[in-house]
Amino acid sequence: MVDPVLECSYLSLIEGSPRYARWLYDAIKPFVKGDILEVGSGVGTYSQFLYNEFAGTLCLTDINEAYVNKLRRRFPDDRVLHEKLDLGSPEDFKMLRDRKLLFDTIICMNVLEHVEDDDLALREMISLLKDGGALILLVPVHKSLYNSIDKAVGHFRRYTKSELVSRLTSTGLRISKIFYFDAFGIVGWYVNGNILKKQAVNPKAFGFFDKLVPILRFLEDLLPFRITGVSVVAVCVNPVPHGHDK
Predict the structure, then answer these.
(1) How many other CB atoms are found less than 10 A from the CB of residue 187?
(2) What is the Cα–Cα distance from 209 to 213, expressed in whole angstroms?
(3) Residue ranges of domains in the chain
(4) 36 - beta bridge partners?
(5) pLDDT tens for residues 153-193?
(6) What CATH superfamily classification does 4-237 receive?
(7) CB 182 within 8 A of CB 224
């Protein structure tokens, strides 16, 4: 189980780190289109970007009913749906399918690692994806980095890039792009979790890291290819069935 205090602390950390949040959002933005489902919206940090920059239906979800209510108050627009959604609950997905809700883009960032049966979660998300639609995932990577912080925030695992590719392709999705994100974050994660055995990221240290993001982002973009990162982003396309090309 995730400690609700640590969960709230993490969400507040990201909400209070505008440069980091924008950096991550900009990494996925080119692949977002149409009607959007965001899995694990939390307090709406990335939802705000999506709401401001895309005009289609926006479905914001979270496993925590209290966060769903916060999202409802923050985004009272008629084009925004607010739903409780547990990635490990087929019943929650069935309720959305019964309402004929399908999406051009499903965004799932820092959520899949919290689900014990991630293969089931992937299949359920794909069931809400339109033909030709995109599933955008961000998950923590490198098993050697699995530490006290991962355990405290309820991570069942960290992935390897090859493992993620295998799981995604086995579902029938086509991976259009996959890349590491935030190479510089590895140092802080390893020191805090692997060496110091802390259960949470230090807010002051992350605040300093956030101030450095413009420089770190520039340096990471200079690399001809991303050789590593604390996370990996996968953009997957749900193939259009043969004979049903739009």
Answers:
(1) 11
(2) 6
(3) 4-237
(4) 58, 105
(5) 999 999 999 999 999 999 999 999 999 999 999 999 999 99
(6) Vaccinia Virus protein VP39 (3.40.50.150)
(7) no
